[in-house]
Fold these 4 entries.
Entry 1:
Amino acid sequence: MSAITSTTDANAALAATAAPASGTDAQDRFLKLLVTQLQNQDPLNPMDNAQITSQMAQISTVSGIDKLNATLQSMATSFGANQSLQAAGMIGRQVLAPGSTLQLQNGAAAGGVELPQAADSVVVSILDGSGQLVHKVDLGAQPAGVLGFQWDGVVDSGASAAAGKYTFTVQAVQGGNKVDATALELGLVGGVTQGKTGTLLNLNGLGTVALSDVRQVL
């Protein structure tokens, strides 16, 4: 009777330890409990080989997951470091990223548009600080992809606009149907930040954008 009781206790302890534990300590505890279980098993009712195999597979799976997690963490750290190095090389360069701000300086401003498909007509509407339309730039028909545009600062009345920040919207049409175009703002990369969500580029006067959001480097 004592052998049967010991076996039952060992089974319970093994089941409780093998599943939640992880790492080298879990493997050591598992092996000690398994040896104890085998030593105290009922000779008239020995453990099933399938049961032993199942328990060993459980602890092997936990150990394998731990090693996989450690490998993935190491890869993620290395990838983040490589991204930072690549992004540092972009300091001083201009990039196009999602945004609708235009910086008018010295009578010139530039932005971009991303088209998921070709369009028969692409029109950029430039707005002042109060949201009033001051000028439209007709880009005509354009293929899918990223394209840039220039504004010389002249408004529809023929006057020159004051330097500063403006915004713009994009209207694109293909065969009478609207195309979901993305406005892209042009910014100068002034620095790089490694954040929790990845590598961020600090654009002078425009804030930060994720490195993954950059559509074009000029």
Entry 2:
Amino acid sequence: MNHLIILPVLLPAVLGAGLVLARRAGLGVQRLAGLAGTLVLLSIAVGLMVQATTTPAQAYFLGGWPAPFGIVLVLDRLAALMLVLTAALAVLVQIHAVATGWDARGTHFHALYLFQLMGLNGAFLTGDAFNLFVFFEVLLIASYGLMIHSGGAVRLRAGVQYVAFNLVASVLFLFALATLYGVTGTLNLADLAGKVAQLPPGDAALIRVAGVLLLAVFGIKAALVPLHFWLPATYANAPGPVAALFAVMTKVGAYAVLRVFTLVFPPTTPDTGALFAGLLLALALATLAVGAIGVLGAATLARLVAFAVIAGVGTLFIAVADFTPQGTAAALYYLIHSTLAGAALFLLADLVAARRAGDGLRTALPPIAQHGLIAALFLVAALAMVGMPPFSGFLGKLMILDASRGALMALIWPIVLTSSLVMIVGYARAGSLLFWKAHERGSRATTHPAQPLAFGAVIAVLAALAALTVFAAPVMRYLDATAAQLHRPTAYIAANALPGVAP
């Protein structure tokens, strides 16, 4: 077995526990160990991506127990992509947290950060539906600790709301798993792929119920309308670096939909394929509309970015709901783009809030320190997020519109284009109040330390967006192959070596 596959889960788990025990060693040791751990995770993720590119799917059987009885981790192109994206973002966000001193405002920041990465990596690698639930719970615990980091009544109230919504998702997940296990006798994803396809017609209703429950669970994780209520308050009140890392958390829901609904409930499945695709598309369009309206009416910059993340989720799921290789490849490109753009905007919102009394968008406030640089970075990030050329958001939306050509084109295209226009107005309003009209106050800019590392992290994220645009062709070659592997999961099933399951 390839033992490298378990390291993205094992390394942050061990290192995070060590940092909890080594709390008295001081913040300097915590920072050094935490940053070193995320850098090593990034190097491991890149190595696994190289392996996934050159070899078929690989399975890692913990304890040597065979599937479907043991715990199995499976590495393929999609899992490797999500590992690299998460680790790269984690490194830059952690640098920002150290540079701005956010990690010093509470205890165990770096330990919780590593546990969060453990949950994310485990969710991307697991080949078992029950262990997907387990890693979701690890994510929930760690993310709650990060969300309320440094305390405060408003942050605590938003954290309770966040936990309450996600506990509902946990309960629904358990109901879905119980239904699946009761009907099929297994929760291994590859095993489910074979057994669901061979079920008698009498069990079709139960399988539909399980599929709808899973769709609700993943919809809550991804913040699809009407299951999005937890996200604006959570992301707007979380510490800036934490919210930036959370930009990848909504993508866990999208990943789970792609993994489960192409493997266990493929679009060709009678009675369920069209049902799930239709539900997803309707929710995606509603999510995009709500997100765009939220961007236009947001009262703070952080809340504006939170609604921009919701709009990005809606755009992403329009492509996911297509359930074709072309649509999936477009969705994966937009997933990378929206994660990086959302993280950049949250980091910028943190820089703005630190230089003035909040980030309100009701009235113009005096200029801030490093006013010109922050304004320029905000302009680039906003144009990228809304999908203006020549940025990667424009390419991603173009691919999604191209993939959606067909009977529903007259519905999808107007909503996507109109929402983009609405968000342009929302970003223009925010930029005008924050940077342009600020000079009308006629007062000097506030003073604040330069924090070059914090700015460097933001610039690095925007540089990654630029690279995504410049190298769109080779990126799409990888994503096209990833989508093809998802929609023909023979290698994934074969890696589990399940008896009686035909690839």
Entry 3:
Amino acid sequence: MPRDTLNRDQIVKAAIDLLDAEGLDGLNMRALGKRLDSAATAVYWHVGSKENLIALAGDQAWHEVALTDLADVDWRTAATRLATEVYAMLTRHPWLVQAFGTVVVFGPGKARVDDHGLAVFEAAGFTGYRADQASAAVFTYVLGNALGQAAAGSITRRLGRDGADGEALLREGMARAEAVAAQYPRLRARLDTAAASYAGAPEDTFDIGLRALLDGLAAQLG
């Protein structure tokens, strides 16, 4: 595809598809150009650099987060929906969790979500920096939970480089980890549960933790 028939939106969409499939390390302009049937130089012409493309793709992903009308629901419902939406988006695009430590991901997509988060906690009764603290506390909780899935996918891809069976290598690594865990009674008792998987957690952990966090914030409001 010649340079003048490409556009930035096409490139960003293709980049998101590639990132979803191959992770952050799998994004390169040659592979992206192949997906677009275009030369890598044409891709560079539209987005400037790989880092800028990651930032554009990341911000586009934030546009997927649906925002609740605060006139229709109470603040806890709005906060729960927002946290759940962001968590779902980050688990659809686990590379975005890694991207936070690589490039500055910020633009209209993320800004609209950040602004809505502040509005939610202002509606609850938090003012000034207290609203910032509440919003940041919930966001970091969501990000921490999404990190587990991002880590599992990333390590499997890394182990699977050069034709290796990444899943088999991960199983081998986990077998060694389980041998260590078996020496500790509480860990040994959980070896057959979801908590024993790589970066795993029991079912409903996200929902339980979010409710506890919102309970604590509500208590601060008196």
Entry 4:
Amino acid sequence: MIRLAGVEKAVPTRPAPTFLLRRIELAIDAGEFVTVMGPSGAGKTTLLNILGMLDGDFTGEYWFDGTAVHALSAKERAVLARTTVGVVFQQYHLLDELTVAENLALPLEYRHVPKAERAALVGDALDRFQLVGKKDLYPRQLSGGQQQLVAVARAVIASPRLLLADEPTGNLHSAQGREIMELFRRLNGEGITIVQVTHSEENARCGNRTIHLKDGWLTPG
């Protein structure tokens, strides 16, 4: 599903560029649940941004289901990302002025899903994630765990093939974190490929493979 070949990312600094990723060779099969671990500054979020097609400023090759992502324009890359990738962030990134239901509808609006179908999909998501009673609330009226649950529901409402999660339990207490990770396991069991960045060994055990980054290099576990 995913193949990175010789991927490097650098930022301009003096006297020489600073590399955030170095010669990354990585293959991820459809249906895997992969964890990325490493110290702060290792390049984990940078790798996630490239996988999520949020960052096209890299060298090397990125193949997604046979599509050469590295050869796409920014517009083409954005279209591919919208139709194939869901992202969950540590900070939730819900829109404060929108209700739970309206936040869930956003990815569908971006994909120009017709209004009636959009309403049906939002209704299904509210039911599936047990959010029906929260649909008219605003993010500030929810607990951290509930906000992250909405963020996960929003990330998967458009049936992405790939779900990316950057420290998804970092702002949650342990019980909430376990609930989110159990949800990820269920989503992976339904066929969604997941790549998560985490510092938590417990979270890492929810996946089927762990890769390690250090100073931008993939290293043995």
